[in-house]
Amino acid sequence: KQEVTQIPAALSVPEGENLVLNCSFTDSAIYNLQWFRQDPGKGLTSLLLIQSSQREQTSGRLNASLDKSSGRSTLYIAASQPGDSATYLCANFGNEKLTFGTGTRLTIIP
Amino acid sequence: DAGVIQSPRHEVTEMGQEVTLRCKPISGHNSLFWYRQTMMRGLELLIYFNNNVPIDDSGMPEDRFSAKMPNASFSTLKIQPSEPRDSAVYFCASSRRQGAGSPLHFGNGTRLTVT
């Protein structure tokens, strides 16, 4: 059974700092790895999608990397801002299903 | 692009009542997913459709849950009879196609409370 783990469960950092969120998964047969953010009371917003043949994707201050051999993905946020405060979830597409991690709740301290 | 539209946003009902959740996927998307989110279990896939056909309903918790997709622009998730443990946020999501290279787009969810 596919399992996706995100550590830490919660993270607080001062505004302006760079940070890394981690995601690990057990199924190496992935087709894509997607990162989402979820604001309280809202649905999930897609941030970045890394296809199986790719190693990383970048969008603005966000960079996501994928290492299939180790079963890990990281989301790097540069120059963090209070608006980045949200829960970040990674999801691994494998065995025809998208399996989500439990998320990292990020708080950026002004 | 109106995004994935779900209704209602909130639903409060008494145990034993029937509940119907509705979803309109993004136009042109042919894969549709129903997820349930709780604090204890996170996001769980209940069922997904490709081209209006249910592909995998192994996540549907019990026979009390059923889902339909009569056409490409509408899907329902029904719980009958509802129970307090069904209380959760139910999300609908859609993508252009199941598989690689197609990001998933979520609706804002329906918060269900069963008393």
Topology:
The complex is a heterodimer of chains A (110) and B (115).
Chain A: E1 4-7, E2 10-14, E3 19-25, E4 30-38, E5 44-51, E6 56-59, E7 62-67, E8 72-77, E9 86-94, E10 97-100, E11 104-109
Parallel strand pairs in A: 2-11
Antiparallel strand pairs in A: 1-3, 3-8, 4-5, 4-9, 6-7, 7-8, 9-10, 9-11
Chain B: E1 5-7, E2 10-13, E3 19-24, E4 31-38, E5 42-50, E6 53-56, E7 65-71, E8 74-79, E9 88-95, E10 105-106, E11 110-114
Parallel strand pairs in B: 2-11
Antiparallel strand pairs in B: 1-3, 3-8, 4-5, 4-9, 5-6, 7-8, 9-10, 9-11
Radius of gyration of chain B: 13 Å
Q: What is the subunit arrangement here?
A: heterodimer
- What share of the residues of chain B does DSSP label as strand, in percent? over 45%
Shape of chain A: globular
In round numbers, the mean pLDDT of chain A is: 90
The helix/strand class of chain B is mainly beta
| Average pLDDT over all residues of chain B | 92
Structural class by helix and strand composition of chain A: mainly beta
What is the β-strand count of chain B?
11
**Intertermini distance of chain A:** 40 Å
How far is the first residue's CA from the last residue's CA of chain B? 36 Å
How much of the polypeptide of chain A forms β-strand, as a percent range?
over 45%
In terms of per-residue confidence, which ranges of chain B show pLDDT below 50 for 5 or more consecutive residues? none
**Biggest interface, residues from each chain:** A-B, 24 and 21 residues
Explained architecture:
The complex is a heterodimer of chains A (110) and B (115). Chain A is built from no helices and 11 strands. With 110 residues, chain A is an all-beta fold. In chain A, the strands form 2 sheets. In chain A, strands 2, 4, 5, 9, 10 and 11 form a 6-stranded mixed sheet that branches. The model of chain A has no long low-confidence stretch (mean pLDDT 90). Chain B is an all-beta fold and 115 residues long. Helix content of chain B is 0%, strand content 54%. Chain B has no helices and 11 strands. In chain B, strand 5 and strand 6 form a beta hairpin.
